[in-house]
Amino acid sequence: MKRWERRVPGWLVVVTGIALLFPLGSSEGGEKGLLQPSAELPIEILSDEVVANNQTGRILFRGNVEAKQGDLKLFSPQMEVIYDRQERRVVTVIASGGVKIERGEQTATAEKAIFSQQEQKIVLQGHPRAWEKQNEITGGEMIFFLTENRIVVNGSGGRRVKVLLYPKQGKPPQKQKR
Known about the structure:
Layout: H1 3-17, E1 44-46, E2 49-53, E3 58-69, E4 72-84, E5 89-103, E6 106-116, E7 121-125, E8 129-132, E9 135-138, E10 141-145, E11 150-154, E12 162-164
Antiparallel strand pairs: 1-3, 2-3, 3-4, 4-5, 5-6, 6-7, 6-8, 7-10, 8-9, 9-12, 10-11
């Protein structure tokens, strides 16, 4: 049996379970956040190499990793998927080496992104930065709580949280009559 043929079962687990990487559709208000794509759309993952180990429940995507679902895109040099072999579901996904996540005009970058299925959260570490148009937030760590449609940004290592907001462009404010 060829080496790649023994690894196919682990790969199949990830293909069927990777949809858990981006588990939520739109929020109650109908507006999608940066990390909340539609759960019905297929996920495409491209990389230079895939190494799957069904015995350890780990799959490693290496080299120019691109994960896409609808208009959500994740780019990283490396992405590791850890899955529960018995329950055939993704437990944790770790993208590292410089991560970029894009959705429309929204973008986030960090050295590392960690997705926890059980906690339904994504943690960006290593100089995380998120922006849309000119509005921007940076800090030491960003935590996206997916089921709560909430984000917490912490400072760390002497790095403070910075929020830069620009007023919405449009008509100038009306002068009030007296």
